[in-house]
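Example record used in the benchmark description.
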Amino acid sequence: MSKRLPGDARVADLAHAKLIKDQRNKGMVGPSIRTLSPDELQARVSRSVNIANPADNTDSLSQEMEGLIQLRISDVDPYDKNPRQHENERYDDIKESIRVSNVLSPLVVTRRPGAPRFMVGAGGNTRLKAQQELWAETGEARFEYLLGIYRPWASEVTTLVSHLAENELRGGLTFWDRANGVWALKREIEAELGRHLSLRQLRDEMLARGLRVAIGVLSFYGFAVEQLAELGPATARLTHPSIRDLQPSTTHLQRYCMLNGLSDADWATLRAEALKPLANILTQDVYEDDETEGTKRIRPLDPARIITALERAVAAHLNQSLADVQALRHLAETYPKASLDELRLRNRNKTLGAVPPSIVRPAPSPRTEGAAPPARTGQGSGAVESSPVRSVVTLQAQPSPRIDVSDDGTAGADPADDDPDLDTDANPHGSATDAIVAFTRACGVADLLRLCEALPSGYYMEIPAAGAFLDGDEAQPYRYAGWWIAAMHSGQIDGEHSDHMPEDSLWRQVQRMEAGHDETALQWHIETTLGNPPGLVELGQWFLHCPDHILASHESLLRRLRSLAGARQGEQR
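Model output (structure tokens):
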């Protein structure tokens, strides 16, 4: 006989009771606590008390999401590769601002994989230092914590780029700090890519990461880091103008040492011996008061002191007089291709009141109306085209007390005349040729000069060979602008006369879309091989700061091209 169900029974209760009964029959549910004996109950309690606490796995928790985080000020470190090495000139003002108003914007923090501590991730090292000092000095609770933005670690390159970008936005970095930051970034990128970077490649890699720095500025940065580190704290006084003056003088002084048989290691030793004692003096005058803003500012460095110190060290090592080293260094800068014997010959004759070399050149041959453009003597070999008014330059001792020689070593048409431009009316074609040869030599770009009488100015500038960038040679900083200035004066830019160029000229081919070149070829060469033409402001600054012999050769070129243009107009009439 079945049991009678209570009247208030629910279907859910009956189903649950049946489930418990079935699990108990199968051994899945133990006996009820109500049925346990006191000894069994006590044993169960003992076993539960002895269970170990769960392990602390907080360190393994992932923080891959960017977000706000509050940290103790003492738990955050500055970035150990911070580009700013010198103290911020406005540090006292920043610290006082934090004392009054606290840090108003969160700091970006990050940490390397496996590192236990956080560090500044994108600028703000100065603010961190100021708040840490305030916490240590005052003990006030408001300085104990900081609000940060946690940014997951990406790479050393990414973090360094973030610091450089943030410092550039906020300003205040010294030239030396920027140079070291960029060069540290160069080393990190090279390590990441596994290869050396040229200046052009470094510029492109930085641009891809959001940092825009011109190749010329990168050259200054590299020179400062590699040649002036021995100045120590005095490097804070380095500026862009001082490096612009120091780089060519130091480079040519080093070249003079190499001509005397010194090695790179010898030069490094001489440089250190000259700069380290000078650093102690220069460090004492790093800062000066700025009366306008009522703060201190860095006193700019006089480059002449460094150049003189280097010249003294070289003179002592070579057992030469300081005057001779200074004179030969200037000559090495004016004649960058000259040998040591030629430099000494020029210096000796200059001391005696005469300019040493005489240029032997044949008399101009008659010009033939409608003659074909002169043939090149070598494609990309450093030689210009052959011409009736130009042949191989030969230097020889000349006993005559006076020979007129232009800045590049070429003689005027009339050596007895004081003004080399007075012969332009007699032979405007030859004078213009002399002038453009002199200018391109002075700028280090004569290997791309091609003489062509069919063109208005008698020449054009050729495109460098593949892979040979105009601004890729750090030892010739005037090559890039010199090419564009010469090309501008030649008349080749507008393309009106390009059909008169030799058919194998690469400039003609890309401009006229010949030999398989399409409409994109010329622009590609301009943006890569040649570099985009300098702007008006850049060109104006270049003329203001280029060496005197380059400026003089350009002025002579302009006068002779004007005379040539007038002569051609007269011929047409």
